[in-house]
Amino acid sequence: MDVSAAMDFAVAPAPAGDGKTFYIETFGCQMNVHDSEKVAGVLIARGYRPVDSHQDADIILYNTCSIREKAAQKVFSRLGAFRKPRWAERRIIGVLGCVAQQEGERFFERAPQVSLVCGSASYAQLPALLAQLESGNRRVKGLNLDTQDCFEIEFTRRDNRFRAYLTVIEGCNQRCAFCVVPMTRGPERSRSGAKIIAECRRLVDAGYTEIQILGQIVNAWQDPSPAHWSFAELLSRVAEVPGVRRVRFTTSHPRFFTSDIVQAIDSHPTLCNQIHLPVQAGASDVLSRMLRGYSREEYLEKIHCIRRAQRAISLSTDIIVGFCGESEKDFEQTLSLLAEVEYDQIFSFKFSPRPNTAAVEFVDSVSEEAKGRRLAVLQEAQRQIQLRRNQALVGQTFEVLVEGYQPRLRQAVGRTTDNKILNFAGNPADIGCYRQVTVTAAGPNSLVGERIAD
Ligand code: SAM
User: What's the CA angle centered on 109, arms 105 and 110, to 5 degrees?
Assistant: First the structure.
């Protein structure tokens, strides 16, 4: 991998790592992906070199996710490969992220080959923790959740050549009954508007035209500086940075979703026609038990506000099936909400009880069989909606940013402002360019088209 090409700006590596190598594997959400990019930046600045395989690495890091039980188990299966002590002795194995925070020091007992355990709220301490490891300490930890610090670093090693992630808020202050995030990522910490805009300018200078603004609850962002911009104002300011062509933001919480966000989209063509607004369930009593802070009707009001925008805005959502006490009737309300909103995409999950959340005290009353069945019904209903919505786009022309090329099909892979994949006959030189493409055919998950003259 050509590391220098992916860095924001040049920094002379410090000698501490002395050419040693590191490997990071990331599980979970975009926040984790971006955290790993920043951790890689910290290591490179200390003189470490990234490698593509854990076998070639002196430091092996797993950035973990504990949002569902299955995700949390992945790190333990990876660590199982390092049971041979001699092999592991010559390496530093570290666990980062949500499972690190959740398990804490227990990791050292459960997996003695682990030398570093660090939750995301302590990433600002990573250089100090690495220094301890470099001086021969075999067990170091960063598990403090009581922090006001954001993970601010000199530079980031970015893995995506087209879309740059930009974190504006870390942590979460909500207490959704199902969700482990507040316990693993700590309280909300917002970065100042000025720092965000400065980073955005650096990203443009590094060649990025698409910015994805990130936060667990991105629209809970509050400018800590005296300027006190609103979140909508922040979006507008980012959209106005010269050179920015596309801005996305995720994840919005319906509770904090205000009409000025839609007005900002209306006023700034660079703000993409896309909003991700997790509903989680269609029945108000389930939402109330989930402690989401809105009813079905209140959620639908936000959707109507989005539908009144001057541009058609594509909508996506997250849905959990089989939450404690969800009856068949409740589930039917989720299906009817799906039919009413007609999302362009959904991310759907079976409820998985998580430690330290309010829901572990509830009875996990829906059987695995019923959860599986509901998930299949939901996904099939959504497949039909997507197929219908995508087929209605045949004949329309969209601008796409080309993100890849499939040599076997000789197709360029583009993405519209609505976040839809639109493939067309192209060539590798299209990668990274914006192209005008007319849709000729549509499936539930992607579109096919023909390029027209720009
Ligand atoms: N912070 C965002 C929010 O509250 O909307 C999203 C957080 S999470 C990374 C992404 C999705 O995972 C959630 O929106 C929810 O649908 C799902 N999720 C979270 N906890 C879950 C659990 N215990 N079981 C199943 N799905 C869960």
Answer: 100
Per residue in 71-117, pLDDT tens? 889 998 888 877 776 777 788 999 999 999 999 999 999 888 899 99
Spatial CA neighbour of 174 closest among 217, 213, 230, 121: 217
Give 304 Cα–ligand 1 centroid separation in angstroms: 23
**Ligand 1: does its nearest atom lie under 6 Å from the Cβ of 185?**
no
Cα 276 to middle of ligand 1, angstroms: 13
Ligand 1 atom at minimal distance to the Cα of residue 28:
9
Mean pLDDT of 205-227: 96
Report how far ligand 1's centroid is from the alpha carbon of 192 (Å). 26
